[in-house]
Design brief:
Blueprint: E1 2-7, H1 13-24, E2 28-30, H2 31-40, H3 44-53, H4 61-71, E3 81-84, H5 90-102, E4 109-114, H6 117-125, E5 127-130, E6 138-140, E7 159-160, H7 167-181, H8 183-189, E8 194-198, H9 207-221
Parallel strand pairs: 1-3, 1-4, 2-3, 4-8
Antiparallel strand pairs: 5-6, 5-7
Bound molecules: adenosine-5'-diphosphate and zinc ion (ZN).
Length: 222
């Protein structure tokens, strides 16, 4: 099963994808996480990606598509994948369809998360992530704080703030989203694949609650 996570930055794509992975046993592949790993290791790809990510811009399509194309060849994702943060442009979506088609596969469900903009900014500046690459649990200092300040509840590693999680960068990330990525909702709506969910503290629905609804929905499809 191929599941795609769509939604503006800070809507909870990573949180929801993480829960779906543990409940459904399908691996999560986050292009943002892969780029951050390369940045940490200062690979050529990392240096290139960093020059865009630090400004809140998208990494160019050809680079990102190549990365995903290669990742899709790995054995662990042959029975299913949760793509978190890809595609982000129509070009990426078209290329993904082509890659999957060749293997007789297709996109099955596209989860579209929405959150009021004022909540998004608050969430992003208060976001902290576990520095352990095998854990990467996401916290929020207000909505979902760790039990002990600065320490991951699950694995005890240090929590860090992503470099691009600041007010200036968030604005351009949101602009990109509305300009380039939100059209993907239409792209997949035409194919009847969209499952939309509102993630908002105003209605008491956070990532965990939405993930539970999605798991039920997917289990009913089988
Ligand atoms: P968020 O959704 O909170 O912005 P991500 O971890 O998904 O966080 O992405 C972080 C950054 O990595 C993005 O702002 C963008 O610069 C880059 N990136 C991630 N995925 C893609 C993609 N599919 N295409 C282009 N750039 C990407
Ligand atoms: Zn952890």
């Amino acid at each position: 099963m191929v599941i795609i996570m769509l939604g503006a930055p800070g809507t909870g794509k990573g949180t929801v994808a993480g829960i779906l992975t543990s409940k459904l046993g399908i691996p999560q592949v986050s292009t943002g996480d892969i780029f951050r790993k390369h940045i940490k290791e200062q690979t050529e790809l990392g240096k290139l990606a960093e020059s865009y990510i630090s400004k809140g811009q998208l990494v160019p399509d050809d680079v990102t598509i190549d990365l995903v194309k290669n990742r899709l060849k790995d054995s662990d994702v042959q029975n299913g994948i949760i793509l978190d943060g890809f595609p982000r442009t129509v070009k990426q979506a078209e290329e993904l369809d082509k890659i999957l088609n060749k293997e007789g596969k297709k996109v099955d469900i596209v989860i579209n998360l929405t959150t009021p903009e004022e909540e998004i900014i608050e969430r992003i500046v208060n976001r902290r992530v576990c520095s352990n690459q095998d854990c990467k649990t996401i916290y929020n200092l207000v909505l979902n704080p760790p039990k002990q300040e600065g320490i991951c509840d699950k694995c005890g590693h240090e929590l860090i703030q992503r470099k691009d999680d600041n007010v200036e960068t968030v604005k351009s990330r949101l602009e990109n989203y509305f300009e380039l990525t939100s059209t993907l909702v239409e792209y997949y709506e035409k194919q009847g694949k969209i499952y939309s969910a509102l993630v908002s503290k105003a209605i008491n629905k956070l990532g965990e609650d939405v993930a539970e609804d999605i798991v039920k929905y997917i289990e009913n499809l089988k």
